[in-house]
Fold:
Amino acid sequence: MTDKFVIAKNLHKSFNGHKAVNGVSFHVGKGEIFGLLGPNGAGKTTTIRILSTVLQPDRGDVLIGGHSIRKNPDSVRRLIGVCPQELALYEELSAMDNLVFFGRMVGLSGSEAKAQAVARLKLVGLRRRARGRVDKFSGGMKRRVNLAVSLMGHPRLLFLDEPTVGIDPQSRNNIYETIEGLRSKGMTVLYTTHYMEEASRLCDRVAIVDGGHIIAMDTPLALRSRIGPPESVTLEDVFLKLTGRSLRD
Amino acid sequence: MSKPLLVALHEVRIYLRDKGDLAFSLLLPVITFALMYGAFGGQDTFHGTAHMVNEDKGGVYSDLLVERLDALDILDVTLHSSKDADARLDRADLLLVFYIPYGFSDELSEGDQAELLVKQRGNGGDEGQIVASIVRSVVDDLAQEFHVRAQVSEAVEGEGISDEQVAATVDYFIAQQREDPTAHVREEALGGSSDPVETFLPSILTMYVLFAVTLTARAIVEERRKGTLERLMTTRLEVTQLFTGKFLAFCARGLVQTLILMLLAYAVFQMFTPASFFQSVAIVVVFLAAVSGLGLIIASVARTEDQAVWIAVVFTMVMVILGGTFFELPESGVLATLSNVSVNTYVNEALRAVINEGRSLADVGAQLAVLAVVAVVSLVISRFLFKVMPGGR
Structure:
């Protein structure tokens, strides 16, 4: 059990009678990239919000690094970094200013925040644009700044909520390489995406979520094997078979 | 450095980076001051214009009358031709015109009765009535002087005293009487000020500070819209620290704007003493704290920027109306009771006492205490009302 860095137990969350998360349980091992896949409104983002201490579950609990999100959210926040789906940045400021500010907010000193900001911007290929205003950046550059911000403070668990939405292949590839580099350094990642090839490439295990609960959870290879020979079946085939082809709101 | 201070500095950095916002917010007090100066600059009592037609041009007394009227600080004289004045009266361009008829001076010199003609539309208007009364009093003075001079000349006739000597002696006594009149009116100030700048500056200052409500109310909602609020709440920043940081930033911003206005008023209208200036700054700081706290309550309940702005605008209007910002409230009755719920009531009382009546901060301690309590209670309430998102912490 010691290698389980995240343990989510029977999570429930409702909004105005609608069950957004309905009995979700899973665990994520140390250094593992765990994917949460699901159609729109499946409950992925709500699950991440619960895990990142923004939302309180109605029932259930999550242990992150041994700390309960209910009893000890402050300790949990010391371990996590969150890259939200929206570009949660101050666009009037430079990339550097954004990173330094969030660095200070996670408890770094001024000099530590500056040093880490330079390193993170280098990691996402924006070292030379450090002083540029974010509102002048392309969509791909903004996404990379968004990712870099979430890495401030050396988090041990990184939440990536659809980090590659709407960007060019070059920026997407840079983000993939960054995530793979983080895995090689032992960082635990909880990843949500709509892109199945992305999940196949990056995730050690994936959970397919629909209607607020997990309907399948395994390695991408094992999931593909469930419906046919894995070399001729894609993760998207599995996804559509499990969640259906009807359109979602 | 503490996190609230970092949040406040961050907010200031954003403010400084937005050149348009920066220029607008710094220019606004300057523009307001320019409007105040244009409306009230150098004018602290009635000032009117006497429109006249002098058909007796070159006459000693007619020219003297025009000269005397023009010399008054409260009056300008504009001379018209008879034709022009009639036409303008017809068009209602002018409401009241004084005509000095031909022969006015000669009639006076010969001891006959001289007449000044006033043509007016309706009652001549409010300004016209005041100007007419001023002109009448100057004409009366002139007539009396002439009458005294004529009487004295007649009394000393045949005693070898020249008319020039009589005129000089009479003028001397008239001047002495003007300087130290036998009967005069004593003015007793009962509070308040006749100076419109002194009357309105405290109100304009409080209006500026009230803008902070809208700014503060928007601040948190804007963070929520951008997604930065949610991100911040996953860091080690506490909601209370975020609120305190925003609170400090908007107090600082409001103070800069208000200081610009106050410094201009100090420099141009000399309406502060050094002591009253710093006391007013202290009052403004406490009021800013109260107003920013109230802004944070709005920020806690509003879900969108539009909601935040509209709630803040309605709140500001109610505070201004109930606070006697631009008009005096009655001392008793429903409105007087309701005014106790407006923070403007307390700040206006405090500023007017310090600026207009020269009182000290100790004299307005009760008002400052109320504002300080509002600031602290608002901060606490806003923290309890706040949720990062529905269902969140």
The beta strands of chain A are 4-15, 18-29, 33-37, 59-64, 67-68, 80-83, 157-161, 188-193, 205-210, 213-218. The radius of gyration of chain A is 18 Å. DSSP finds nine helices and ten strands in chain A.
